[in-house]
Automatic annotation (TrEMBL):
InterPro entries: Aminoglycoside_PTrfase (IPR002575), Kan/Strep_kinase (IPR024165), Kinase-like_dom_sf (IPR011009)
Species of origin: Myceligenerans pegani
SUPFAM superfamilies for the chain: Protein kinase-like (PK-like)
Keyword Acetylation: no
Name of the protein in question: Aminoglycoside 3'-phosphotransferase
Top-level taxon in the UniProt lineage: Bacteria
Residue ranges constituting the Aminoglycoside phosphotransferase domain according to the UniProt record: 78-251
Family in the record: Belongs to the aminoglycoside phosphotransferase family.
Key words of the record: Antibiotic resistance, ATP-binding, Kinase, Nucleotide-binding, Transferase
Keyword ATP-binding: yes
Length: 275
């Protein structure tokens, strides 16, 4: 196994990832591509060039997401179940493997064509990225059937693990506008774009579930404004999705997001077993 690439550096490769990568790619390459705020790491795995013979076609690259046992990230098994369900209706990665050991759990998916909207190349084309994220969410929300979806992302489920006083501070949700199957983490990095700047696919669906569509729209629009540092871009996003901004619901779902994320980060800082 060759470990290539240092971004984001430095990356300490967990022992289990060493073992898994050796198993999955042998002498291929392992490139760290992403570290999330909660201790999760994602690696891109590629077969060794020697195996890239003319026939049969080379295997597509794969992504190995590693979630340490003490991380409050969505569980890889939860994400695998959601990906398997959502694949019938939306462009999302194919699950190749999922597993758990003493130190953590992992998910292996097949690489989808496209580049993340967080890739530096899209800094030159932020309008295209904002619009593609809006188009992608509209496609998911329109295509995935609520009645068939076994997963929920409703506020009551998201706040059930919060201390009661925190839950009370968030307050009751506004009446539902439209129940859809939400992405659950519709931040900029989780949309892939084609080279021409159009929507390609969704990744990172560990929280996918049925909820008011504003749960996604509130978070996606804020992520776009922040990542591209342009307060005009949310208007592009909402236009591409095809909706007029709803300030009350946007405000509620952004507050809910922040409270849940703060809680997750606190859990991560506590020593193992303390929470
Ligand atoms: N199957 C795939 N095909 C293409 N790119 C992928 C795939 N899986 C993951 N990626 C890339 O790896 C990145 C990290 O994966 P993912 O978003 O699932 O990790 P995460 O740690 O949960 O992210 P976050 O910080 O948003 O919670 C994605 O933003 C995407 O660029
Ligand atoms: Mg992500």
């Amino acid at each position: 196994m060759v470990v290539r690439g240092v971004h984001p550096a430095p990356v300490e490769i967990p022992d289990a990832v060493h073992a898994l990568a050796g198993w999955y790619v042998g002498w291929g390459s392992v490139t760290p591509v992403w570290r999330n705020d909660l201790g999760g790491l994602t690696f891109r795995l590629e077969d060794a060039p020697l195996l890239h013979g003319p026939a049969p076609r080379p295997r597509p690259a794969r992504y190995l997401k590693w979630v340490p046992a003490d991380s409050p990230c969505p569980d890889p098994f939860a994400e695998a179940g959601r990906l398997a369900w959502a694949r019938r209706f939306a462009a999302v990665p194919r699950v190749l493997d999922v597993g758990r050991g003493d130190d953590g759990a992992w998910l292996l998916t097949e690489e989808l064509p496209g580049t993340s909207a967080i890739d530096p190349r899209w800094r030159e084309h932020p309008r295209a990225a904002a619009r593609a994220i809006g188009e992608g969410l509209r496609l998911l929300h329109d295509a995935a059937p609520v009645a068939d979806c076994p997963f929920t992302w409703a506020p009551v489920a998201r706040t059930s693990a919060l201390p009661p006083e925190v839950r009370a501070a968030v307050g009751p949700p506004p009446p539902v506008d439209r129940r859809v199957v939400c992405h659950g983490d519709a931040c900029v990095p989780n949309t892939l774009l084609h080279d021409d700047g159009t929507f390609a696919a969704h990744v990172d669906l560990g929280d996918l579930g049925v909820a008011d569509r504003w749960s996604d729209l509130a978070v996606a629009s804020r992520s776009i404004a922040r990542r591209f540092q342009d307060p005009r871009l949310p208007a592009e996003f909402f236009a591409a999705y095809g909706v007029t901004p709803d300030p009350e619901r946007i405000d509620y779902y952004r507050r809910l997001w922040d409270v849940v994320e703060r809680h997750r980060k606190r859990l991560r800082q506590q020593p193992r077993g303390a929470a």
